[in-house]
Amino acid sequence: MVQLLLHEALRQALDEEMERDPKVLVMGEDVGHYGGSYKVTKDFYKKYGDLRLLDTPIAENSFTGMAIGAAMTGLRPVVEGMNMGFLLLAFNQIANNAGMLHYTSGGNFKTPLVIRGPGGVGRQLGAEHSQRLESYFQPVPGLQMVACSTPYNAKGLLKAAIRCENPVIFFEHVLLYNLRGEVPETDYLVCLEKAEVVRQGKDVTILTYSRMRHHVLQAAKTLVDRGYDPEIIDLISLKPLDMGTIGESVKKTHKVLVVEECMRTGGIGATLRASIMEHFFDWLDAPIVCLSSQDVPTPYSGILEEMTIVQPKDIVEATEQLCSL
Predict the structure, then answer these.
(1) Which of 95, 113, 114, 116 is nearest to 104 (CA)?
(2) Could you please report the per-residue DSSP string of 201-233?
(3) Measuring CA to CA, how many Å separate 21 from each of 77, 140, 154, 225?
(4) What residue ranges define each of the domains in the chain, with the CATH number in brackets?
């Protein structure tokens, strides 16, 4: 095992896949000579050339459409969004083309495409740069969505996403790029459709993903000190949801807390609650509790920004209240 920062793990995954398969290419704003906004493609142009590290104009709809066309011809493009919020400009291409072409072409075309980049609430990035797009793309047929949360799963998931025959939206959190963790030196993949049981427990199931995994783990230290035994599950796959792993946990703990950075209205948590109620209602001993971000544009003020998203103390308080029912 080696210690890597999350952005280094992503860089290593891309490098290995580009070396393994000459059909893999990267395109986006400043991915070439500049090395990407968060240095995921640093110095790649020296090794792979300007055609496999394609610097694009500031036109997300155009280069995303070009990547979809490239995927249809047999290439495996990786699109880097400088910020995931900018990909709203390419929503039509992602939804109407990438997600549906395999079906609408009668199976004649595949779109093995990865769209990745930084998202989530950073530190005073303002409303337009603090977007969480998972709830925007979740209803789109034909797309898969994953959210990495550690250097280990970041590398394994990106390699698996590049090899996948489906279009994959790959969410990275802007505040996790400098997270350090262990990564195997040998080649490995992480399943795109499987949740991870981060901590075994018996009192309550806490479902989370991305940066909130670490808020939950921080809260868990306090909860354990107070005599609680939470089970923590990192969803990883946001579409499809791993209802098998979730269901096994619900049947054991009988109580569910969802912790997300997505907005409360129409967020991932809303889908989770509906699915759990539909499939595992008989095993629940209390209402499902969901902690989500406030339904407001993210403020620029650091103090106000912190108030809009879930904090570890909120998780401790919600868990104690839920376990008392």
Answers:
(1) 95
(2) -SSEEEEE-TTHHHHHHHHHHHHHHTT--EEEE
(3) 11, 29, 19, 49
(4) 2-183 (3.40.50.970), 196-323 (3.40.50.920)
Nearest to 71 by CA among 103, 113, 99: 113
pLDDT at 274: 96
Residue type, 138: Q
Nearest to 269 by CA among 284, 256, 282: 256
Sequence-distant (6+) residues with CB within 8 A of 73 are none
State the Cα–Cα distance between residues 127 and 183, nearest whole angstrom: 33
Handedness of CA 64, 193, 214, 313 (dihedral sign): positive
User: Which residues are identified as catalytic?
Assistant: 60, 129
Residue 239 has pLDDT above 90, yes or no: yes
pLDDT one-digit tens code per residue, 50-98? 999 999 999 999 999 999 999 999 999 999 999 888 999 999 999 999 9
Span 107-143, pLDDT tens digits: 999 999 999 999 999 999 999 899 999 999 999 999 9
Report the distance separating Cα 192 and Cα 153, nearest Å: 10
Q: What is the DSSP letter of 178?
A: T
Distance (Å, whole) CA 148 – CA 209: 8
Cα–Cα distance for residue pair 59/106, rounded to 1 Å: 30
Residue partners of 96: CB distance under 8 A and separation at least 6: none
CA atoms within 13 A on the CB side of 166: 19
Strands (E), 32-164: 53-55, 76-80, 114-119, 144-147
What is the SS3 assignment for 171? strand
pTM for the model:
0.96
Q: How far apart are the first and last CA of the chain?
A: 43
Q: How far is CA 214 from CA 153, 208, 265, 281, 291, in A?
A: 14, 9, 23, 28, 15
Do the bridges between strand 289-293 and strand 204-208 make them parallel or antiparallel, or are there none, so unpaired? unpaired
